[in-house]
Known about the structure:
By secondary structure, the protein is mainly alpha-helical.
Amino acid sequence: MSKFRRFAIHAIALAALALVAVIGAANAAPKAEPWPRWEKQDAASTKTIDHAAWDSFVKTYVVASSDGINRVAYGRVSAGDKQALSAYVDRLAATSIGAFSRAEQLPYWINLYNATTVKVIVDHYPVKSIRDIKISPGLFSSGPWGKKLVAVEGEPLALDDIEHRILRPIWRDPRIHYAVNCASIGCPNLAREAYTVATADRMLTEGARLYINHSRGARFDGAKLAVSSIYVWFKEDFGNNDAGVIAHLRHFAQPALAERLAAAKSLDSDAYDWALNEARE
Length: 281
């Protein structure tokens, strides 16, 4: 074999490895990395934020299906409700959230994330999956998560910023994963009510219980434990190892599932369905 051919083969191999590495990095779940400017709060503040518009929207368009999965009737959203949704997102974005208490900030960020996600789907509808909305920067990116979609306090923010640089690192509560919705069948349900200070803790726990006790969250295929890929992608939030994930699952599992989880030693497989969580009537 000539030196030129060996060099060409070597170069191609290196390029392929680099491509795999780039794709892997693009598809890897983001780490929780705090953005210090969003840690500001006013613990003494008694100001509240009105989420009635979002509450009305989800009560109108989120359908609780018989299979335990909440689906959204994206195709039925009226022109007036599209405008109301946009106005709600704009109003939240115009809020100086650092002037509110930490308790008021939590439902603010959850509702802003979910309302923005639904708005993205409605704006690009029809689509088969949120990953088909390829507006994020980067050659191998998919979905809308990296796109700066809103500006809060003059700072452009992406959905990834809200989830991974604000919600996860500030609250350090694994139940956050059951609150933010990615418009997919495999995702925890989009709640049929807005998060508020009064309802947030209850809703976070309900979300965890509903998801973990559904086959999307955790199930046994024979003796093998199959879980949502969420627990693999974000293992650091669930104890950082299989034992931590299993302990988390047991905490919210119904008795029959909890008993089986008590004997589990590892996560044997994981899966995630990226099909759009669309209600079709």
